[in-house]
TrEMBL record:
Residues 6-63 form the HTH lysR-type domain. This is LysR family transcriptional regulator. One of its GO terms (molecular function) is DNA-binding transcription factor activity. CDD domains: PBP2_Nitroaromatics_like.
Length: 331
């Protein structure tokens, strides 16, 4: 294959389709008609001898060959833009930028109510696109440009992934009002005597709290695994099951409901949340603006333990990673 015979604009189109997962959105981003975009995709398919994308419902799902190709195309396009000085100054008041964030479902209710009022008031043209992020997808999706930022607990990552600790959250235990097994405070004996709900995207994974309990030689009885906090809280309100979640999520859930909050019976146990991005975005003003906005809103919120003076962008330390390796399966 001779690269001089290939129209390199095809890779620009490929990258947009990959990032957007939609011919319609990609055509809007590139100011091309859908027929023109489809024709370009057909040409590239012929060049690489692979369909690259398969339509599933309303999405264009990448093939394995597309996943491999984007690892080379995305950083190459970024380098070219930087070399030509085409990464323009970012003005949030007038930008139409779409920023993609991936995170586990439990973080949406914590972050979006803090971010969207500020974006609506000061950056009305900026679109925030959020998607669920599986436990092993963080590095791949940042590397391929499928997402711009990720929010998660501490994960082991490669050298091109930046991370920054942005907040610490207490754990709370949710129980129905008038729970017969709980007096004024929730003791460890009472906590361990009851069955529990675990919100997770995994059929057999453990939560952060399970690793903390295991460190004290304890294993709780999980009666229900589900994928949604709202459903979990409804179940708790009608049963004697207990639910352990981050305090900011719990405080939202308890409003106007038949549930109440108790302190997690292991003192001083917190969940550390990290913001992740790829080194390719170090000089992207839009992504750096969003990083600053997230840190600013977290720091300004008295209901959570923000890290007011985060360390510079870095990789998690080896010691921390090793210490938390057992926790990387927590959902």
């Amino acid at each position: 294959m001779h690269i001089e015979r290939i129209d390199l604009n095809l890779f620009v189109i490929f990258e947009r389709i990959y990032a957007e997962g939609s011919l319609t959105r990609a055509s809007e981003q590139l100011n091309l008609t859908q027929p023109a975009l489809s024709h370009a995709l057909a040409r590239l398919r012929t060049v690489v001898n692979d369909p690259l994308f398969v339509r599933q419902g309303g999405r264009m799902v990448p093939t394995p060959a597309a996943h491999k190709l984007i690892r080379y195309v995305k950083p190459s396009l970024t380098a070219i833009k930087q070399g030509l000085g085409e990464i323009e100054d970012f003005d949030p008041t007038s930008s139409r930028k779409r920023i993609h964030i991936g995170w586990p479902h439990r973080f949406e209710s914590v972050m979006l109510p803090r971010l969207m009022p500020v974006i609506e008031a000061g950056a009305p043209g900026v679109e925030l696109s959020c998607s669920l992020l599986g436990r092993y997808e963080l590095e791949e999706k940042l590397s391929t440009g499928a997402i711009d930022l990720a929010l998660n607990v501490l994960r082991p990552t490669g050298p091109d992934i930046r991370s920054r600790l942005i907040l610490r959250s207490d754990l709370a235990v949710v129980a129905r009002k008038g729970h017969p097994g709980i007096r004024k405070t929730l003791s460890m004996n009472s906590y361990m005597a009851h069955k529990h709900v675990l919100v997770t995207g995994s059929s057999n994974g453990r939560g952060f709290e399970d690793f903390e309990l295991a460190a004290h030689g304890l294993k709780r009885d999980i009666s229900l695994r589900c994928t949604d906090y709202h459903s979990a809280c409804l179940v708790v309100s009608k049963t004697n099951l207990l639910l352990t979640i981050m305090s900011p999520i719990a405080e939202l859930a308890v409003q106007g409901s038949d549930i109440e909050l108790h302190r997690f019976p292991l003192p001083d146990k917190t969940v550390d949340l990290y913001l992740y991005w790829h080194a390719m975005s170090d000089n992207d003003p839009a992504i750096q603006w969003m990083i600053g906005l997230i840190e600013e809103q977290v720091s300004a919120d008295a209901s959570i333990k923000a890290v007011n003076k985060p360390k510079p962008a870095r990789k998690p330390e080896k010691s921390s990673t090793a210490k938390s390796s057992a926790r990387t399966g927590a959902q």
